[in-house]
Amino acid sequence: VGTLQQTRNFFYVVPDDPRMVHNVYVQPRLLPSAPRPPQPNDKVVVRLEPWESRHVNPEGEIIELLGRSSDPGIDMLSIIRKNNLPLEFPAAVLAEADAIPETVDPDRYPDREDLRKMFIVTIDPDDARDFDDAINVERLPGGEWELGVHIADVSAYVTPRSALDREALKRGNSVYLVDRVIPMLPERLSNGVCSLNPNVVRLTHSVFIRFAKNGTPQSARFARTLIQSARRLTYKEAYALMKKPAHDELAKRLHTAWELASLLRRRRFARGSLDLDFPEVKVVVDKTTGRPLRLERIENDESHQLVEEFMLAANEAVASELKNRLVPTIYRVHETPDPDKLSEYRDFVMSYGFQAGDLTNRPELQRLLESFRGKPEEQALKIGLLKSLKRARYAIQPLGHFGLSKNNYTHFTSPIRRYADLVVHRTLADRDGKRGVRRGAGELAGVAEHISATERVAAEAENESVKMKKLEFLQLQLSEKNPQVFRAVVIEVRNYGLLIELPDVLLTGLVHVSSLQDDFYVFDGPRRRLIGRQSKRILAVGDVLNVVVARIDVFKRQADFAIVSDPPPRAKEAGTRARRRSR
């Protein structure tokens, strides 16, 4: 996928993927499905011809005209085509979905545990439409707790090897682009009968976990249930209630829930879990034009932490149950990192002035992460750690989860949007082997490998869509009389300039050395810094700068910035390295 361009003698396509450095020569022609021949600045899909030599540009054939690159929605459509994401469901899949009743008749499910009178709520983002999970917490006599986590029972509707099941497996997961959701299941299920909407009866798979006063899990029970959610809360609403005195039942229950969640959170980190949470920057776009309107920073506040802790507890309880019963299933695994990678990361963080010991020692890694907290470099350093760790994946062996410091872990809590969770629901429901819906280990291994791959594709598409809209938002700043000033942290120094991270935008960019107008800067390679020839000012890793947008390269997906105010002083002379921190 790329943009068609023309010189005097030939046409070529500039690929959207910046990793593909060669332009592709093409000969535009009228396509049967297109209203006109492709023209310069059109977004097109190209099929490459055999490419025998990497020393010359490849040739290709335009097979689809997406539209003008500047037209609304074409940027997202190009991401969809590039990643081969499906936009439509096959007719057989829709037919199966349409045959499912839109409402739940409780009388048809006499064997299910009826929880409709229980005060159960959902907590989700403002714009969520598919509600997988609901919760309730009860304080028991003697100070113990009982947590109920109630998950949409998608397995009641999507039966093994049905058209719905085959399509869900093929997709692997829902994909959340900036302007749309590409769901794993048809909307009739994902936003309808499976979604735990308020004040309607829904089929659920529930996990009940008893905790001691100190948050230690005592026992777990699993049941297929009926619920009727009492309230649909957004994270913002839940957070507001949690921060005020509890005057009604809803607020009191949220306060009680947070008491338990905070206990679980403290216990999790005491056991070695790594704090790798990031704030999210959401791009709000105009629904008609797709133009980015603003960037919203979403913090990982107590309302998010409450839901997170309860979902982690449910996932761990289910994984332990299936492992103890020797039931073949799919686990979520995050393997121990390579010591050499951690050693390289140690050198990286020490270049920022932080002290780091043996990072194969989990407490030392936790201490290092804690030392980042609240610092301008925090996001860049956490991203660096993530790159040093292995990628989480799905497997049929319970290999544990390094980041969470859990021996047993799976994905159970999001079956509307993840096929892994649907598989786990089925194996949990048939853990005694009486229903005959189990998959063999070989088949499950193939499923685990496939959905690990679809997850990677989805993450890449989602990240690309967010980055594209962030760059478009920054490009709009170029036409502003008073462009926005951004806080930036220097994360690397090269001979051509400063690589920077914008913590409030979660985007990287470049301050090119040619934009530094106050002096002529010389690159000090061994110490990774730039030095002003006259002023002796030092620009080095970890410096905090104020910058404005200078240039956006749409094709390369890169942003250049210019410094608009002096950086914090580091040292009067280049030969004197300022001691930035002591740890």
Count of helix runs = 12
Give the CA-based shape. Answer: globular
Arrangement of strands in the largest sheet? 3-2-1-4-5
Helix content: 25-40%
| Global Rg | 27 Å
**What would the average pLDDT be, to the nearest integer?**
92
Distance between the termini: 49 Å
Counting DSSP E segments of at least 2 residues, the number of strands comes to 26
Number of spatially distinct domains: 3
Given the helix and strand composition, which structural class is it?
A: alpha+beta
- How would you describe the oligomerization state of the chains in this entry? single chain
Q: Name the poorly predicted regions.
A: 567-583
Proportion of residues in extended strands: 25-35%
**Sheet with the most strands, sense and barrel status:** 5 strands, antiparallel
Description:
This protein has 3 domains: about 1-70, OB fold (Dihydrolipoamide Acetyltransferase, E2P) (Beta Barrel), CATH 2.40.50; about 90-330 and about 400-445, no CATH class; about 480-565, OB fold (Dihydrolipoamide Acetyltransferase, E2P) (Beta Barrel). Helices cover about 30% and strands about 25% of the residues. It has helices at about 75-80, 90-100, 165-170, 185-195, 235-240, 250-270, 300-325, 340-350, 360-370, 380-390, 420-430, 440-475; strands at about 1-5, 10-15, 25, 40-50, 60-70, 115, 120-125, 135-140, 145-150, 175, 180, 200-210, 215-230, 230-235, 280-285, 290-300, 330-335, 395, 485-495, 495-500, 505-510, 520-525, 530, 540, 545-555, 560-565. The strands form 8 sheets. A 5-stranded antiparallel beta sheet has the order 3-2-1-4-5. The chain has a 5-stranded mixed beta sheet with strand order 6-13-12-9-8. Helix 1 (about 75-80) packs antiparallel against helix 12 (about 440-475), helix 6 (about 250-270) crosses helix 7 and helix 8 (about 340-350) packs antiparallel against helix 10. The longest helix is centred in the last third of the chain and has 37 residues, at about 440-475. Mean pLDDT is about 90; it is low at about 565-583.
